[in-house]
Write a structure and sequence with these properties.
Strand content of chain A: under 5%
Oligomer: homodimer
Strand order of the largest sheet of chain A: 1-2
Structural class of chain A: mainly alpha
Low-confidence stretches of chain A: none
Number of helices of chain A: 13
Helix content of chain A: over 70%
Largest interface: A-B, 50 and 50 residues
Number of strands of chain A: 2
Order of helices and strands of chain A: HHHHEEHHHHHHHHH
């Protein structure tokens, strides 16, 4: 938590710097973008990007563009997921969702603009900008996050199985965690072996994160959504999250104590209660 | 027209290569992406990218990634513009629009995936990938195409003025034409002076293209949409398109006969009847 807090201010500052001012024309668009980006997120994915860079002797300065890019991309997915034709959610983090606050067309376009700004920001990385853009795009596209979202929508309300659930978790969630550590590593000059280790760590952590999310959601008394808990049961989900976190720690074997921030975030994500 | 035809096959081949196979999971997503990309477009923006590269001694091979990227991005804007919360168009190029054929959520996500693939493709350019990504993102984002679309939606059905119309044309249309020639130029190693000339050419050609589009639309007997023709009148719009095309030709002053393909496309766009 302390490490997440220390990354968070740097990430907030960078997001504020790369987002156009709210007053710039068209103001409604820039207000909507800022409304959704500054909504109180924990900035877990950017913290992973920064921690991955530290693991290789880089730090906040080298990784900040990659870190901001992954958070901009994450925010676009939340705006589009909430739209009426998708999950149709009226609230997000206790406030009106973007389309409730700014209208459906403006929310759709704010998401499009944040996705675009994510790539612009990634391409401004001082190190390996093209490789960082490619890592983000592969994770975010039709074989990644978008593909996972399509599978999630197709499965909603229908009986599902573990292989469908795994496809959704792997793409909708874990692909972006994997990209976060990969992008952070690239910004610190990671070689091929380091990238293999970081990708394995990111993937396993992302899968564990989603199981813990589903466990926490299932504790909500009014939750009726279909999730991994309905398929695996609470005990197996909890055990699988722990085993994935152990797998993530193993993947960091090649690194020494410089990987401690990555380990600390992974432990926090497994043990969190919100 | 002959030049456009010669570029077109190379562009179609590259688009087919970078798009995932229609059968790949989730198949509905990859089918929707291909349905909209292969809908019979003239591929004008990719032709501009290739012609700009030729102008600097490059050619189809160096510019093909940039060319495909700009067309993928253009296709995403068409899918999202047609959605019910935007222009709510049921048809596009004589066929059902993407959301009519695949459903609203799948169309939204197909657009997101094409936008993402545009950046992945741009980042695979063999020359200047990061600069090409940045040129595309700046043109496509909240201060470019998306900003123009927000302004267009805000103006719909209301009395408008020339300055609003200019903002919409400059961002919704001309920014992507400017990016196309800029990206093509970058792929052929353009220096700062060449980029200034190419950007001025692209911007003026894009503005002229939109005026000609509005003139052709106004000839349709059932057209009731609000356009520049209502503000400027037919004669002034026609004269302004010609003057912008002349301005575009002037911008190519620094180049010799290598700029002939760029000039030929600009002339064709002014004189076209469809």
């Amino acid at each position: 938590m302390a490490y997440l807090g220390s990354c968070r201010q740097a990430v907030e500052d960078e997001l504020d710097r790369v987002l156009p001012p709210a007053a710039q024309t068209p103001a409604v668009l820039h207000e909507a973008m800022r409304y959704s980006v500054f909504a109180g997120g924990k900035r877990i994915r950017p913290a992973f990007a920064i921690a991955a860079a530290e693991c290789l002797g880089g730090g906040c300065r080298t990784a900040i563009a990659a870190a901001a890019a992954v958070e901009l991309l994450h925010t676009y997915t939340l705006i589009h997921d909430d739209l009426p034709c998708m999950d149709d959610d009226d609230t997000r983090r206790g406030r009106p969702s973007c389309h409730k606050a700014f209208g459906e067309a403006n929310a759709l376009l704010a998401g499009d603009a944040l996705l675009t700004l994510a790539f612009e920001t990634a391409a401004r990385s001082p190190v390996a900008p093209a490789a960082i853009v490619r890592a983000l795009a592969v994770a975010a596209g039709s074989r990644g996050v978008v593909g996972g979202q399509v599978a999630d929508l197709a499965a909603t309300g229908q009986p599902s199985d573990e292989s469908t659930m795994h496809f959704i978790h792997a793409h909708k969630t874990a692909d972006l965690f994997r990209a976060a550590v990969e992008m952070g590593g690239l910004s610190a000059g990671a070689d091929a072996d380091a990238l293999v280790a970081l990708r394995a760590f990111g993937r396993a952590t992302g899968l564990a994160f989603q199981l813990v999310d589903d466990l926490l959601d299932a504790d909500e008394p009014d939750d009726h959504s279909f999730s991994s808990i309905h398929i695996m049961g609470r005990e197996r989900a909890r055990a699988h999250a722990a085993s994935l976190t152990a797998e993530a720690m193993d993947a960091l074997g090649p690194f020494n104590e410089a990987a401690e921030p990555l380990r600390a975030i992974a432990r926090y994500l497994l043990e969190r209660t919100t």
